[in-house]
Amino acid sequence: MSAYRWFIGMALSLTLVASAAAQEQRPTSLGQAAGPTREITRITGEVYRFRNNFHYSVFAVTPAGIIVTDPINAAAAQWLKDELKQRFNQPVRYLVYSHDHADHISGGEVFADTAVVIAHANARPQIVGEKRPTAVPTVTFTERLDIELGGTTVELHYVGRNHSDNSLVVRFPREKIIFTVDWIPVKSVGFRDWPDAYLAEWIEGLKRVELMEFDILAPGHGPLGDKTDVRAFRAYMEEMRDLVLAASREGKPVAEIKTEARAKMGEKYKGWAGFEQMFDLNVEGMHRLVNANRRPN
After folding, report:
1. How far is CA 292 from CA 95, 106, 162, 198, 199, in A?
2. What gap in Å lies between CA 4 and CA 100, rounded to an integer?
3. Mean pLDDT for all residues in the chain
4. pLDDT tens-digit series, residues 132-144
5. Average pLDDT over residues 273-291
6. Which end of the chain is more exposed for a tag (fewer CB within 10 A), N or C?
7. pLDDT of residue 27
8. Do the beta carbons of residue 95 and residue 112 sit within 8 Å?
9. φ and ψ of 158, to 5 deg
10. What is the pLDDT of residues 64-82, one digit of tens each?
11. Contact 178, 217 (CB under 8 A)
């Protein structure tokens, strides 16, 4: 895939009000017992992870401002904005959407007063057309965009269609971290029956991510991982695809294929998150995807 770079920089004269050590020592802020669980944790260097219940985003703090990813929803975004001001006394200068789905990017308007909103070119018409409750991106790109702010570079990569046609890989080269949402889970099966999935391109995209330089994978849900988790999830998809295709060619019904898949794959993947709830749905969805473009005799 060819790539182009677009360097964006802003010179600001704001100063941090606390040292990095003091920020690390600050107690984590949690929601009330009856409300959402929210917290900020430092991954490494200047990159932090924001949690809102089961959704996660990441952000980078620089001397010239903050680069934030998915706002999640308006209430979560306002909480995060207040925390960022209190902890770092820095404005959000860039807001990056991982993809167009509302459960991750709602609430972008909270940051739009100071931030340039960025997404893949395919995301903008989805956000506008579906009336996503968020700020419409003001900057879009097709293959690659590099953001430069306060001496920090954040790379935005598009590696093809997968869980959507506009999902990004956000890479922090200094910390060797990547942030991806909904298409590279860590020790988890796929989501339900692979809705909105582009099977062949998804697998090819995983291969491209494996070629990137990174040590930490920060997904939009679940625990942190690494490159071995990318390989493991690709192997899971390929194994299920090959099994479902072979069984479909033998004329087996979906119910029988699910039983066969559990027998052949269950021991290896039963410890993954969501296995009991979604493995059968994964098989059903894979059957739909495999046969969508297949023409039997």
Report:
1. 36, 32, 16, 11, 10
2. 22
3. 91
4. 999 999 999 999 9
5. 98
6. C
7. 36
8. yes
9. -110, 120
10. 999 999 999 999 999 999 9
11. yes
Cβ proximity of 156 and 146 under 8 Å: yes
Q: Which of 180, 154, 158, 181 is nearest to 60 (CA)?
A: 154
List, edge to edge, every strand of the sheet that includes 7-8: 7-8, 144-149, 152-157, 169-172, 177-180, 216-219
Name the one residue in this structure whose structure tokens are 């260097």: 45
221-245 per-residue burial string, b: 16 or more CB within 10 A, e: under 16: bbeebebebbebbbebbeebbebbe
Which of these, 295, 297, 263, lies nearest to 280 by C-alpha position? Answer: 263
Predicted TM-score (pTM) of this structure: 0.88
Q: pLDDT exceeding 70 applies to what percent of the chain?
A: 89
| H or E element, residue 192 | none
Cα separation, 185 vs 273, in Å, equals 9
Residues 6+ apart with CB under 8 A from 62: 46, 90, 149, 150, 151, 152
Asked if residue 105 lies in contact with residue 95, where contact means CB atoms within 8 angstroms, the answer is no
Which domains occur in the chain, in start order?
7-183 (3.60.15.10)
Strands 7-8 and 144-149: parallel
